[in-house]
Design a protein that fits this description.
Number of strands: 14
CATH class of the largest domain: Alpha Beta
Largest sheet: 8 strands, parallel
Helix content: 25-40%
CATH architecture of the largest domain: Alpha-Beta Barrel
Order of helices and strands: HEEHHEEHEEEHEHEHEHEHEHEHHEHH
CATH topology of the largest domain: TIM Barrel
Bound molecules: NADP nicotinamide-adenine-dinucleotide phosphate
Number of helices: 14
Distance between the termini: 43 Å
Radius of gyration: 20 Å
Structural class: alpha/beta
Length: 365
């Protein structure tokens, strides 16, 4: 297998020098390119192991950071037994958060309720999704829980996010009780990520994040974070808990989030792009359509790839059917050129799809 020379490789080397711990990989035209920055002594050997295997062999291997402390310092390549598709094996483990790795594409389940919602989540897992995003306020934790229980994919292989604290609910609930309820509905002992769904001036951020940190301490949430926090609020939150994992915000080609993204990269948070297709608004864009046509991709794939190709960004598109689910997951199969990335970045026009009355003062876009 040929190792592709790329600027990503150089970036990995630079990170190696600064000893920043990070593992990231992607598939470029059916070849695996792995960039890793772990302990220099172990990186080279492990990278060679990973890169040395042929694609056929690779399809039956799973690469993940060793979870033994000190975290992320080693990789192991181990055989996996449960998989259904290529995407299932690779899981697009994109962003390292301490000892955990967040997949680059998740299934956003807003609006997917009841039996139909359950069936779609189950289908998503069968298609290879390993990240499911829900919230207490979507009214579908029970449906997601049923799908998790019915799926043959081991729970440990799935990244599950839920959210609590919404301005439309009482401001100071018993958060331990509420999370326990979510866990019961989701049929799991822990969530991978627990988010404050929306900032709320009536809720003390100090109190909320203190409670979340305690729940993390108890192992009920592996990581904690926020959602819909603009830059100033995120800075405040980080003063309270310095190691927040993520901020889930609206991000798509029509909305520039540069200041927030820079802060999040600086503080090592992951930007989870919600409404990544602007609920369909970007699908008629002529620039995206031209790229899609030229590359024989769908417009949704081009828009999603633009997101997940950015460092420290993952996306959680919603879908109404299995075809959309499948199509959206295929963003692992190709890369956009720098020119294409720049052309899409230039489409930003301040379009904000999710802008409720209770929303905060957003960053200028
Ligand atoms: N934290 C928050 O406050 C917050 C707010 C909003 C959303 N979210 C999260 O973000 C997730 C995604 O947001 P969203 O579902 O509102 O918006 P979205 O992902 O931008 O749009 C999803 C819609 O686009 C269409 N679509 C999806 N894939 C497609 C494809 N391949 N080709 C053509 N059309 C496609 C489908 O609608 P049609 O088929 O009907 O066109 C689908 O329902 C939510 O499910 C939720 O998990 C979080």
């Amino acid at each position: 297998m040929q190792i592709l020379p790329s600027s990503s490789h150089q970036m990995a080397q630079n990170r190696l020098k600064s000893h920043q711990i990070r593992i990231d990989y992607a598939v470029y035209e059916r070849q695996l390119f792995l960039k890793a920055a772990v302990q220099p002594s172990t990186w080279q050997a492990n990278a060679n192991v990973a890169l040395g295997v042929r694609e056929q062999t690779l399809c039956r291997r799973h690469i993940e950071p060793d979870t033994s402390p000190p975290i992320g310092h080693r990789m192991r390549v181990r055989e996996k037994r449960h998989f259904k598709t290529l995407y299932g094996y690779l899981r697009m483990e994109k962003e390292l958060l301490g000892k955990y790795t967040m997949p680059g594409i998740g299934f956003g389940t807003l609006g997917n309720t009841g039996d139909a919602g359950c069936a779609l989540v189950e289908a998503a897992l069968a298609e290879g999704y390993r990240y499911i995003d829900t919230s207490r306020y979507y009214g579908n934790e029970e449906a997601v829980g049923r799908a998790l229980a019915r799926s043959t994919v081991p729970r440990g292989d799935i990244w599950v996010t839920t959210k609590l604290l919404h301005p439309r609910t009482p401001p100071q609930p018993d958060l331990a009780f509420e999370l326990e309820k979510s866990l019961r509905l989701l049929q799991t002992d822990y969530v991978d990520l627990l988010l404050i769904h929306w900032p709320n001036p009536e809720v003390s951020l100090e109190w909320a994040l203190g409670e979340f940190a305690a729940l993390r301490e108890q192992g009920k949430a592996r990581t904690i974070g926020v959602s819909n926090f603009p830059t100033a609020l995120l800075r405040q939150a980080l003063q309270i808990v310095g190691d927040l994992a993520a901020n889930q915000i609206e991000y798509h080609p029509y909305l520039n989030q540069r200041p927030l993204l820079e802060l999040m990269r600086e503080r090592d948070l992951v930007l989870i792009a919600h409404s990544p297709l602007a609920r369909g608004a970007v699908l008629n864009d002529p620039v995206l359509q031209e790229i899609a046509q030229r590359r024989q991709l769908s417009v949704a794939q081009v828009a999603l790839r633009w997101l997940v190709q950015q460092e420290r960004v993952v996306a959680i598109p919603g879908a109404q059917n299995v075809e959309q689910l499948r199509e959206n997951l295929k963003v692992l199969d190709f890369t956009l050129t720098n020119e294409e990335m720049a052309a899409i970045s230039a489409l930003a026009r301040g379009t904000r799809i999710v802008n409720p009355k209770h929303g905060p003062a957003w960053d200028p876009a």
